[in-house]
Design brief:
Blueprint lengths: L1 H8 L2 H15 L8 E2 L7 E5 L2 E4 H19 L5 H6 L2 H21 L6 H9 L12 E2 L2 E2 L2 H10 L4 H24 L4 H12 L1 E9 L12 H10 L9 E10 H4 L7 H10 L5 E2 L2 E10 L5 H16 L4 H8 L3 H4 L4 E6 L5 H8 L6 E6 L3 E11 L2 E2 L2 H34 L5 H6 L5 E5 L16 H9 L10 E2 L3 E11 L6 H32 L2 H8 L3 E2 L4 E2 L11 H8 L6 E7 L3 E10 L4 H34 L2 E3 L1 H6 L6
Parallel strand pairs: 1-21
Antiparallel strand pairs: 2-3, 2-21, 4-5, 6-17, 6-18, 6-20, 7-14, 7-16, 8-13, 9-10, 9-12, 11-12, 15-16, 19-20
């Protein structure tokens, strides 16, 4: 009985996490780190006004989040990936947002009764089997089984019911705001047209021609252009930094990990090396775009007949599959567990026998023909298989810890110097510590050698000119001690500073105008798109139909082209239209899906609700943003650092 329960409820933790978090994810905004202050209560992970989130509460939520990502990423999930996603900060920010939203719900008098809670819990189903988790044959499984199911997932009835009640309150809050949103008929029609009114075109892209060297631009012309277009050259506040970087990669070779350390880690974490059932499969995808459903299904059925008659699966996949990711490999998808593929594909693949040809299987992508090449049952990976990865992880973890230790010691030395000069910092460089300098950076810029790092930029913009950060900042390369050396205020820079850019802009405009004029003249003499393409030695593309909002296959979503396409009639040739730096495009409209009034009437209410939901989401985001601005959000930086989060 216990084994059966394990099988039936092994996805419970995933379900519970989704129940609790889906609403917050709906309105999630990446707020970044709150302020980090010393002397924080070690039992708290964060505080914001009256809100207190304990380390125990955070660890419980973080465990659920890690389980979710492990199921999503499988063996590709790692502590490094969690750090790259700033997962600890994401989870903590989500918890703060949920508390703020609960407070808003209380202020509006929104509650969940015991009866509502009971009905919801009894209605929870296993997404794999579709069976009720806590109901069998229409009858509640009983308190003992209920508690046992929760205990298997390290949950108590009290915490599970409290979390579920909170989630239902947030759903009510969402409905409250959604139902208060007003969506006009014009908005609904525009959204319907963006989704359903499609155009099919033939197009040719004429790339920029090297041509003659651009004509010289005089200083007077450049200065006149600069004065006429000042908004194009306005700059935000920018700052320049110099920093010491304790580089993890330079420390790594000195870190030793013994065989005993690797074995001990494996023994202590053996359960984390447990892998569920996996299958090795290959497939042939016949993609469906709406108009070709019957034809693609027929092609899939024909492929099955060929395969059953002895055709080579890999050769047929290379010839016919629409899955660019696996086509070159003969359709081979490698091995994968449950939860990795879409539901219809997964059910067919895991239900197939080895080497059996299955299909056509209809999914949101099209029709699949599947063959399972083999499978492995649930197992714990043996030590020899994972030992190299454990050794590397331990070495990298210890190198990072050593980098933090060295950086902390370095920070103390810098602090004792008072207002450290550039030479002071330069003298502190060593084989494992480098002295570096950035260009002028805006808040959204990525420092060269560091990459996009909000913590680094936030720290730089919190310092006064000449001030050095009191604590290291975590980066992908190691720990950085940052000094702000110069601040450039926002505004229009001197002409001399952007003169080269102004001249380049003028030359680009002249080149674009010349290119448009040349293609326009060639089109007039050629008479057709195909003749133009032949004359200019470019290819005519005939992609699938695309909606009003784009993208145009092969071109993206250039607004000027989209506007021109949907204002033209079938059969009209339009252009040339400039497309960024790629050149100019000329196109012919082959067909435009007419507005379907009957279909619009059927979808109108559903679209209205979707737009109301989107508006409600934006209002809730603004609400959270305002409430966070009113509070002083503080994170326990040492605790987050221990959990693998960024340290500021």
């Amino acid at each position: 009985m216990l084994k059966q329960l394990r099988e039936n409820f092994k996805h419970l933790k995933w379900i519970l996490w989704a129940v609790i978090a889906i609403f917050v994810l709906f309105v999630f905004v990446d707020w970044g780190m709150g302020s980090s202050r010393g002397g924080t209560d070690p039992t708290l992970a964060a505080k914001a006004g009256d809100i207190r989130i304990t380390t125990a509460e955070f660890q419980k939520e973080y465990a659920f989040a890690e389980d979710r990502y492990r199921q999503a990423y499988g063996k590709n999930y790692s502590p490094e990936l969690a750090r790259a996603m700033n997962l600890p900060e994401q989870v903590l920010n989500g918890m703060i947002d949920r508390r703020l939203l609960r407070a808003e719900a209380r202020s509006l008098g929104l509650k969940v009764s015991d009866e509502e809670l009971t009905q919801h819990i009894l209605g929870i189903k296993d997404p794999q089997s579709g069976r009720g988790l806590f109901v069998r044959d229409g009858v509640y499984v009983g308190d003992a089984t209920y508690r046992r199911i929760l205990a298997m997932n390290r949950l108590s009835p009290e915490s599970f019911e409290a979390d579920t009640r909170d989630a239902l309150v947030l759903e009510k809050l969402n409905r409250f705001f959604t139902e208060s949103m007003v969506v006009g008929d014009d908005e609904i029609r525009a959204e319907y047209e963006n989704r359903n009114v499609k155009a099919k075109i033939a197009w040719a892209l004429v790339p920029p021609s090297p041509g003659a060297a651009p004509a010289a631009v005089t200083d007077a012309e450049a200065e006149a252009w600069f004065k006429a277009n000042p908004t194009s050259y306005m700059q935000p506040e920018k700052r320049k930094a110099k920093y010491l970087l304790v580089e993890t990669s330079k420390i790594l070779p000195s870190i030793q990990v013994s065989d005993a350390d690797v074995q001990a880690d494996y023994t202590a974490n053996a359960e984390s090396f447990r892998k569920g059932e996996e299958i090795h499969a290959r497939h042939i995808l016949y993609k469906v775009d709406g108009a070709n459903d019957a034809a693609q299904k027929a092609r899939a059925e024909a492929a099955i007949r060929k395969l059953k008659a002895g055709a080579d699966f890999a050769a047929l996949a290379r010839a016919e599959s629409d899955d660019a990711g696996s086509k070159a490999n003969g359709g081979d998808l490698g091995s994968f567990p449950r939860g990795r593929m879409v539901k219809e594909f997964e059910q067919a693949a895991f239900g197939a026998k080895d080497m059996e040809i299955v299909g056509p299987v209809k999914t949101s992508f099209g029709y699949d023909v599947i063959q399972v090449l083999g499978r492995t049952g649930e197992r714990v990976q043996p030590f020899f298989e994972v030992a190299p990865g454990i050794r590397q992880r331990l070495q990298e973890d210890r190198a990072r810890e050593e980098a933090k230790r060295l950086a902390a010691a370095l920070s103390e030395k810098v602090a004792k110097l008072g207002k450290a000069s550039d030479d002071d910092l330069r003298k502190l460089a060593s084989p494992g510590v480098t002295f570096n300098e950035t260009d002028f950076l805006a808040r959204t810029d990525a420092p060269a050698g560091i990459g996009f790092n909000p913590q680094f930029t936030e720290k730089l913009f919190s310092l006064k000119e000449g001030e050095t950060s009191p604590a290291p900042v975590a980066t992908a390369r190691g720990e950085a001690i940052v000094k702000c050396v110069e601040i450039r205020k926002p505004g229009l820079p001197p002409f001399a500073e952007v003169k080269a850019r102004v001249i380049a802009d003028i030359q680009k405009k002249r080149q674009d105008e010349a290119a448009l004029a040349n293609v326009r003249q060639t089109l007039a003499s050629a008479g057709s798109l195909e003749a133009l393409a032949k004359k200019l030695n470019v290819k005519v593309e005939t992609p699938d139909a695309f909606p009003k909002a784009g993208p145009i296959p092969g071109l993206g979503s250039p607004k000027a082209v989209l506007d021109a396409v949907f204002s033209a009639k079938a059969g009209e040739t339009k252009g040339p239209v400039a497309v960024d730096a790629r050149g100019v495009v000329v196109f012919r409209v082959e067909s435009v899906t007419p507005f379907d009034a009957a279909a619009f009437d059927k979808e109108k209410d559903a679209i209205r609700e979707q737009l109301r939901g989107q508006k409600a989401s934006r209002v809730l985001q603004a609400l959270i943003q305002r409430k966070r601005a009113d509070l002083k959000v503080e994170f326990n930086k040492e605790f987050l650092s221990q959990m693998g989060g960024a340290r500021t």
